[in-house]
Amino acid sequence: MTTAVVIGAGPAGLMAAETMAQAGVQVTICEGKPSVGRKLLMAGKSGLNLTKQEPLVPFMQAYAEARGPLTPMVQAFDAAAVQDWARGLGQEVFTGSSGRVFPKTMKASPLLRAWLGRLANLDVEIRTRHLWQGWQDNGALAFETPGGVVTLTPDVTVLAMGGASWARLGATGDWAGVLRGIGCELRPFSASNAGIAVDWSDHMARHFGAPLKGVAWSAGPYVSRGEAVVSARGLEGGGVYSVSRGVREGHDLFLNLLPDMTVPEITARLSKPRGKASFANHLRKTLRMTPVQIALLQEMARPLPDGLRATARVLTALPIRHAGLRPLDEAISTAGGVPFLALDEGLMLRDKPGVFAAGEMLDWEAPTGGYLISACLATGRWAGQHAARWALTGQAPA
């Protein structure tokens, strides 16, 4: 019987295992943590955004410089295929107004249970608390387990151990040392989809937890129309996550508090008589600004410039003073890892024939909004297909 080991039980690893098992390979999944799909379950707490319903060209633009190698993989398992796959697991989906696709349950646990049931029916074995240590001299995979070191010698291996954020969920990035040891040149890890660290003054404390809605963000070429939350540590949420790459690359961060209004429109409204009202109340009444928006304006732009038009410009491009991104381990995802140049077209390591890689281990990044899980599923499926072909026929991609 042809055998395979998948190391890592996140979306990419589970998809690779499913694909190989359907091709007739006997698959064992090894996971270092006591349970599987931990980061998937964490993502499900905010609704489990599986993919995004939009044409392929704009969809792939979200992957920036990685869109070239990723395109055939995502095209082979696109947004429609992801939805069909979820429905096949008994999970109905819906598409929101922004094109984002979610399970109707808005949870990850029902989908994960159904997925594990399918894998069980395919005779996929799952071993938890199996922490990968690398290869022994004889080529066997070595795992640290509660009962001691266990070795496995499969016909093919798929690595799907994630990036280097949320270590408590299993994505430690420790595998990087093993791959460097066999000569694989890796790209350094860096935070992606990360919060922004801000050292607030005391007067902002009353606004911690307050949402910023109906705003827009920009950092160099990266722009986002999305919400964020003011927290004790800084700014969190999809709006700032989408432009965090720009912050990482050194671009200034700007917040448009009133993206649906032009500078002349804002100026006209501010020109209305305010009587004895404070300027903060004037902003609230004429522009319908929220207390947290006004507080941010005062935090970042006090004293305000002279002239209403100059103030209007600040309202549409408020510079955000910050202390950079939150730490790598807090990021939703990571950039860096195994570059596509280190892999063949089937995602097999050039330095280790018969070993494939998928998911966040690969050097790609994308904003939140369905792109992350979608590419993890697509690369897991792609690696699984080519790993099965290698194991069953000994053939690499043409």
Can you give a write-up of this model?
It is a single chain. The mean pLDDT is 96. A hairpin with a 2-residue loop joins strand 16 (228-231) and strand 17 (234-236). The protein has 14 helices and 21 strands. The two termini are 25 Å apart. The relative contact order is 0.19. It is elongated and about 85 Å long. By secondary structure, the chain is an alpha+beta fold. It has helices at residues 11-22, 38-44, 56-61, 67-76, 79-88, 109-121, 175-181, 238-241, 244-248, 263-270, 279-287, 291-301, 308-316, 371-393; strands at residues 3-7, 26-30, 51-52, 93-95, 100-103, 125-127, 131-135, 141-145, 148-152, 156-159, 187-192, 196-197, 211-212, 216-219, 222-224, 228-231, 234-236, 253-256, 318-319, 333-337, 355-357. The longest helix has 23 residues, at 371-393. Helices cover 34% and strands 20% of the residues. The strands form six sheets. A five-stranded parallel β-sheet has the order 6-2-1-10-21, covered by helices on one side. It has a four-stranded antiparallel β-sheet with strand order 12-17-16-13. Helix 10 (263-270) crosses helix 13 (308-316).
Using brief descriptors, characterize the structure shown:
single chain, 398 residues, alpha+beta, 5-stranded parallel sheet
Compact summary:
The chain is 34% helix and 20% strand. The chain is an alpha+beta fold and 398 residues long. A five-stranded parallel beta sheet has the order 6-2-1-10-21, covered by helices on one side. The protein has a four-stranded antiparallel beta sheet with strand order 12-17-16-13.
